[in-house]
Structures are given as structure tokens and as C-alpha cells.
Amino acid sequence: MEKHILIKCNMELFGLYFLIDEGNRETKSFNTAFQIVCKSSSIDEIYDNFASTIFEKAGDFLERKSGMLYFDNIVT
Length: 76
What we know:
- The chain is of the alpha+beta class and 76 residues long.
- The chain has one domain (7-74).
- It contains one helix and five strands, in the order ββββαβ.
- The strands form two sheets. A three-stranded antiparallel sheet has the order 3-2-5. It has a two-stranded antiparallel ribbon with strand order 1-4.
- A hairpin with a 4-residue loop joins β2 and β3 (24-31).
- The longest helix is centred in the last third of the chain and has 22 residues, at 43-64.
- The radius of gyration is 16 Å and the shape is elongated.
- The model has no long low-confidence stretch (mean pLDDT 81).
């Protein structure tokens, strides 16, 4: 923030899911839209918005797969 007045950022989570019926693992990613951050931005609020978006997308993914997939691990 010392060099730039505004920055554009987003968050992406990569997770390893296990498909019970087929016995295989898949890496899926869920991301957020970009947000503009400045010195007066509330980092806690931005983080909370990012986290709720990712949790919602991950939940929607699980529902589409009829509960057959479950979260196994965060990919680092």
C-alpha cells in the first residue's frame, strides 16, 4: 500500500475431494471476484466476504454431486 494507492485482489481455494463411488480423488478450485483494496478498506470484512463466497461455492458443488464427494484436504 506504500507504493500503490489501490490493489485488486481475490482468493482461490484448491481442495482435494474424494469420490466414494469411484474411489478417485479430484482437485477442485473455488475463487472469488476481484475486489479493490485501499488503505481505508476493512481487511476483516473483505476476508469474511471472500470466505463466505468460497464456502457457498464449495457447498453448491457438493450438492450438485448428490453428497457423493467430500472434502479431503487443502492442496498446498
